[in-house]
User: Fold NADH:flavin oxidoreductase/NADH oxidase N-terminal domain-containing protein from Thyridium curvatum.
Amino acid sequence: TEVPTLFKPLTIRGVTIQNRFAVSPMCMYSADDGHLTDFHLVHLGAFALRGVALTIIEATAVAPNGRISPADSGLWQDSQIAPLRRVVDFIHSQGQKAGIQIAHAGRKASTVPLWQAKVEAKQLATEDVGGWPDNCVAPSAIPWDKEGWPMPKEMTIAQIEEVVQGFADAAKRAVVAGIDVIEIHGAHGYLISEFLSPISNRRTDKYGGSFENRTRLLFQVVDAIRAAIPESMPLFLRISATEWMEWSGQESWTLEDSIRLAKLLPEHGVDLLDVSSGGNNAQQKLDIHPYYQVSLAGKVREAVEAEGKKLLIGAVGMISNAEMARSIVQEGHKLNEEAAKNGTVEIEEEHGQKTQADLVLVARHLLREPEFVLKTARQLNVKVSWPKQYERGEWPRSFK
Ligand code: FNR
Assistant:
């Protein structure tokens, strides 16, 4: 029997990943002044040990005021390279690849870690807990929500240029640390995403107004990073394909904008678009079902492919079982969307359509079940190699 696409390798520029599984970036709020810690080594190393081909390290700030919380990972100074290198070396020792998401939190910076927010019933990290509520920046002076969030300062052109340089410098440090893949965080209402949306970006200069102006910062970051990293290194971009504000009647960032953007990415050297959604607006109305986000990826992929552009697509969101993961990337198959809405997976093979995505990114399910990839391999009857130290734990054929 043929190996499902899910377990076939994927080569992007000079990097080959063993299968189509990636750890979706997840902030762990466990860094020490931006430096990764033992927690990260164990947490991230566990995925590489258990068959995930590409582990994308959490949102990593390009500037101290671009952190979501005081405990975020960062790459704004050279001392942050060594602890990252330690994690990357371990991932490599397992024959797997390491990515890192580089980010600036914009108006969603200076918050406390989620678990602390729950206990204290407040989001804002004030100065006494290491926050910088008066030093947050955004395209316009509009907070994420009316209460409990920092009031950002509208960025000057000089500050924008500094952030672009910050992204390039962070990417260079990631290269020194041995990282295989860079992902730019352009999603979830963080700085780049704030510039994309006409709701959060009310600027009247060359960074606001038209689609071209609102995407300017993104393309400057893309171009600066592409120029700073080796030709052989893949570049990913995560965006929110929609900010889920269509209901409001306001002009917002929509799927159509994302498709328009996607078609422009290959010529700027972006290799993969990681399709997420939401996070830019407290009033967002999500239409959640198991394929709510995967289907956005499929729509972007179809539109890009129709124009003959070469852009890989990553799908993320609620991917939590073997069959779902398999069908998303399976070549020559298309999902029955109606059935998918009800949570069942039906494949319309006669459709002859291509896949929904090229890479499956998993976040929460890998926290629940770190051995998801190995278990999926077993369920799909695919033989994958286990770490030599773990071989005795491999499921015997008779294991039920
Ligand atoms: C996240 N998510 C996230 N996304 C991102 O782009 N950068 C990040 O640093 C984080 N941090 C983060 C932390 C934690 C604990 C969770 C659970 C999530 C979002 C994540 O990558 C993913 O897109 C969503 O969780 C949806 O995928 P799942 O969880 O349904 O597989």
The pocket of FNR is lined by residues 24-27, 58-59, 101, 185, 187-188, 238, 276, 316-319, 362-365 (CB under 6 Å). The first strand starts at residue 10 and ends at 12.
